[in-house]
């Protein structure tokens, strides 16, 4: 057994992170330390993700008047690196015409909209205006890098006189020299495609539906073109958020891979081939960044089954880690891969490293060196094909009868996250549970499984085999539940790295 420990100080620093000197507004027991959450009040879907003049913009569904859903307005934050966020005043506010629901934002560099003045490049937001019995698509523009917004005087730009018609996702399609919008009829579970030369007048060009979709509604579409890894080809990826019927229960996300001809999307998947973006309980409404060559997504870290009741205060709701998206071609066809963006690397420091075969020795090393924490990334690699049955994995946030189990069951050939005893779970019956993702042994490279587990104060995000499978879940343990325990056989390598708080 080889053990490398960079000083006892790592364990002590990791253990003491909850006392890090920072603004008390960002230091509650369940406050994420490297995920975005608003200083106060409710948030849900990310909106208007766009990169412009050195800033990543995050707009998001926000209630400026309370900690539960309501009074939907676009909140606003900016970051140079997708982690260090500066929260700005709300961007687009509810008014007498309705609430401001989800949508997207583009940089109109060619001034196709005609909104530019004095050479300023317009940012144009395309969003759903919500009234009790009508949802329609509106636009607003900003000439000062998103700090102030003007609603278009001729809104709405699309109105089908329907109660449920929302969540426009817009991008520039260079081959057709058009803006393309994907928007959904939620209760019909149908995506509509529109095109425009100026962001003001739109023409419908096509539709997409799937007989295989579970659940009751479609929301928050995102359509983008992605190179196929290791080739000169590209494929089109369509994200759809669904209100129910996911593997973990409640809301979640599907994806499709196919082709887009400038008018409509066609899926490559055969009937019965249903793909989920994430197998955890808490990944919803992810969309992607405009105006950057990298394909980066961001989602809402919650589930509509209990979103209004999670035990956080004075905020409620957070964003997931930003993910870089890739498409790979396997024997079975094209698949999505997701990895946390590289910008997280400078936040990780100090390291506990272990190489060996003896799990008991690994746990003794953790105990003797007092390795504890609540904000870190843990990576392990283990051989799993040699065993006929059994589990291999790790318990995190362990202490006082609490623990979150993350592992691989070799008999069932599935990844799982078990938060049954993860801490506070009794605020809603749907919260507690064990959530699984299929992963066949034949799909494991060299008979090994690699897990990268990002732990924050109230969440775990699991990335298996470089994003082949992901599972995102909220947890609410006591602040002093900071232990680790590995279980099973086959471990070959373990690394634990502290992640700095991104709050000042």
TrEMBL record:
Keywords: Glycosidase, Hydrolase, Signal. The keyword Signal applies. CDD domains: GH32_Inu-like. GO terms for molecular function: hydrolase activity. SMART domains: Glyco_32 (SM00640). Residues 363-492 form the Glycosyl hydrolase family 32 C-terminal domain. Residues 1-21 form the signal peptide. Residues 35-338 form the Glycosyl hydrolase family 32 N-terminal domain. It comes from the Bacteria. SUPFAM superfamilies: Arabinanase/levansucrase/invertase, Concanavalin A-like lectins/glucanases. Pfam families: Glyco_hydro_32C (PF08244), Glyco_hydro_32N (PF00251). Belongs to the glycosyl hydrolase 32 family. This is Glycoside hydrolase family 32 protein. It comes from Larkinella insperata. The lineage of its organism: Bacteria, Pseudomonadati, Bacteroidota, Cytophagia, Cytophagales.
């Amino acid at each position: 057994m080889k053990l490398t420990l960079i000083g006892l100080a790592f364990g002590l620093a990791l253990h003491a992170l909850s006392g890090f000197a920072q603004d008390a507004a960002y230091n509650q027991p369940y406050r994420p330390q490297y995920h975005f959450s608003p200083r106060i009040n409710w948030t849900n879907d990310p909106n208007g993700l766009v990169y412009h003049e050195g800033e990543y913009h995050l707009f998001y569904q926000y209630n400026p008047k309370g900690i539960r859903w309501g009074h939907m307005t676009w909140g606003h934050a900016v970051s140079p690196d997708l982690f260090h966020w500066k929260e700005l005043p709300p961007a687009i506010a509810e008014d007498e015409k309705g609430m401001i629901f989800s949508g997207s934002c583009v940089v109109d560099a060619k001034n196709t909209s005609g909104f530019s003045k004095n050479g300023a490049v317009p940012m144009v937001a395309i969003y759903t205006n919500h009234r009790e019995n009508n949802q329609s698509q509106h636009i607003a523009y900003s000439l000062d890098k998103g700090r102030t917004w003007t609603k278009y005087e001729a809104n709405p730009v699309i109105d089908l006189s329907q109660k449920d018609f929302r969540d426009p996702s817009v991008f520039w399609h260079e081959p057709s020299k058009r803006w393309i919008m994907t928007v959904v009829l939620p209760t019909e579970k149908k995506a509509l495609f529109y095109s425009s030369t100026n962001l003001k007048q739109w023409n419908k060009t096509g539709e997409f539906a799937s007989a295989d979709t579970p659940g009751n509604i479609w929301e928050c579409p995102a359509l983008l073109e992605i190179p196929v890894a290791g080739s000169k080809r590209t494929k089109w990826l369509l994200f759809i958020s669904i209100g129910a019927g996911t593997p973990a229960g409640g809301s979640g996300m599907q994806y499709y891979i196919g082709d887009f001809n400038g008018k409509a999307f066609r899926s490559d998947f055969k009937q019965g081939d249903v793909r989920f973006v994430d197998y955890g309980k808490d990944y919803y409404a992810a969309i992607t960044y405009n105006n950057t060559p990298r394909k980066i997504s961001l989602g809402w870290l919650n589930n509509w089954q209990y979103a209004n009741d999670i035990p956080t205060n004075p905020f409620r709701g957070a964003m997931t880690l930003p993910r870089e998206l890739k498409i790979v071609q396997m024997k079975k066809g094209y698949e999505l891969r997701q990895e946390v963006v590289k910008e997280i690397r400078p936040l990780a420091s100090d390291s506990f490293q272990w190489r060996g075969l003896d799990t008991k020795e690994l746990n003794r090393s953790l105990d003797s060196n007092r390795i504890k924490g609540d904000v870190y990334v843990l990576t392990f690699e283990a051989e799993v094909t040699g065993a006929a049955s059994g589990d291999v994995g790790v318990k995190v946030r362990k202490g006082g009868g609490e623990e979150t189990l993350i592992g691989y069951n070799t008999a069932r050939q599935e990844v799982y996250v078990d938060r049954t005893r993860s801490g506070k779970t009794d605020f809603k019956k749907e919260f507690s549970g064990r959530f699984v993702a299929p992963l066949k042994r034949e799909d494991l490279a060299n008979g090994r499984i690699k897990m990268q587990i990002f732990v924050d104060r109230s969440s775990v995000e699991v990335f298996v085999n470089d994003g082949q499978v992901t599972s995102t879940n909220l947890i609410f343990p006591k602040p002093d539940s900071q232990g680790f325990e590995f279980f099973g056989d086959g471990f070959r390598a373990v690394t634990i790295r502290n992640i700095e708080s991104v709050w000042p």
